[in-house]
Amino acid sequence: MTPKSRRAWEWIVWGTLFVVVTTVLHNARTEIEQVHVVIVFLLLVLGASAGGERALGFSVAVAGFLAINYFFQSPFDTFAVAKSLDWTVLLAFLATAMVATDLLAQARAESEIARRHADEIERLSAEVRHTEALREASRLKDVLLASVSHDLRTPLTAIRALAQNVSLGAGDVPRQAGSIVEQTDRLSRMVADLLDLSRLRAGMFSVNPEFNTAEDLLGATLNQFARDGERERIRAEIDYSSPMLAGKFDFVQSLRILSNLVDNALRYSPGESTVTIKIGPHGSMLRFKVIDQGIGVAPTERKRIFEPFYRPSGSPPDAGRLGLGLAIARELAVTQQGSVEYSEGESGGSVFILDLPIAFAGTEELNSSQ
Ligand code: ADP
């Protein structure tokens, strides 16, 4: 309905209502008092002012004034006024009706202005969000280009030099061939990480949450470090006071998350220090805490370390990593209705908390103390 036809409808509806009310009151005018008539017409004016425009309210007020005078004040059916008190009633009605109409119209106009402001604010903030998203996308693209060109070129340069030597039969050929395999593995790991992150971001990475025990995930994680001789540095604490700790998570991808957190903890803390994995229930989550005694993360960097390609200033130079580990870990956890968060360690190191949906919630929660 157009605003014009809506306005026409309002006039028709309130005009008809006015005629009906006046007729009903007119038929009963010998039994009712003037005060009742005035109240009914005032209600009519208020209704018309609230439901329609200012002119409609004023028109019903004037029509009410005339109807009261003509039909309901003696002498009936004339515009003459016999008693001066009747004038007071008529003027009081008109003044009240006009003021109420004006106030309602003002309130409606103000609420309309407020609504327009709210719409404008919403539109502007959507624009800001859009611009920010574009800026972030452009920043990520720049970082990606810089990172990819730098980090992927390093192993490629090494592979080229090694391959050249091997083809000339120079140096220790078997060792150089082994290095080529190593560098190629590193390269394909980086490319795989890049692909995974872009699939995760696009919602095209499928996970398979199943019933798994915390103990199995812990065992598989520890096995990952058995070869590197780092296993002795890792201590595991499982909260056995609660019933069997199990969750609903993708085993392979959760292993990837936990291994990444443990790997970081080992790499960013002194060689002789211990890394502790604490496991316990936490509300509806199964909580894995990876606690190290390392350098920790500065408060200003704690959010940013989860951004792709981000390396805090002063962090060790490229060690064959793109800075994608935590970004992928978080995305993988979120895809399974879990989370990965940073929390400061008591002795200055880092605590990374992986939460995964629990299958059977225990009664006790993992103690917040480490
Ligand atoms: P990378 O593969 O480069 O280590 P990550 O995404 O795994 O990338 O980590 C991003 C950054 O977060 C790292 O460069 C490092 O500075 C910081 N970081 C991650 N884990 C730890 C930790 N346990 N202690 C201190 N700093 C950490």
The helix fraction, in percent, is 55-70%
How do the strands of the widest beta sheet line up side by side?
2-4-5-7-6
Low-confidence sequence ranges: 361-370
Strand content: 5-15%
DSSP helical segment count: 8
Largest sheet: 5 strands, mixed
Ions, cofactors and other bound molecules: adenosine-5'-diphosphate
> Over the alpha carbons, how many angstroms does the gyration radius reach?
39 Å
Q: Given the C-alpha coordinates, what overall shape results?
A: elongated
In round numbers, the mean pLDDT is 88
Which structural class do you get from the secondary structure elements?
Answer: alpha+beta
Number of E-state strands: 7
**Cα-to-Cα separation, first versus last residue:** 66 Å
Order of helical and strand elements: HHHHHEHEEHEEHEE
Q: Could you characterize what this model shows?
A:
The protein has 370 residues and is an alpha+beta fold. Helices cover 58% and strands 11% of the residues. Helix 2 packs parallel to helix 4.
Fold topology:
Layout lengths: L2 H25 L6 H18 L2 H19 L11 H85 L4 H29 L8 E4 H11 L9 E5 L7 E4 L1 H17 L7 E8 L2 E7 L33 H11 L3 E6 L5 E8 L13
Parallel strand pairs: 2-4
Antiparallel strand pairs: 1-3, 4-5, 5-7, 6-7
Helix pairs in contact: 1-2, 1-3, 2-3, 2-4, 3-4, 4-5, 5-8, 6-7, 7-8
Features of the shown structure:
370 residues, alpha+beta, five-stranded mixed sheet, two-stranded antiparallel sheet, 8 helices, 7 strands, 58% helix, 11% strand, binds adenosine-5'-diphosphate
Short description:
The chain has helices at residues 3-27, 34-51, 54-72, 84-168, 173-201, 214-224, 251-267, 325-335, and strands at 210-213, 234-238, 246-249, 275-282, 285-291, 339-344, 350-357.
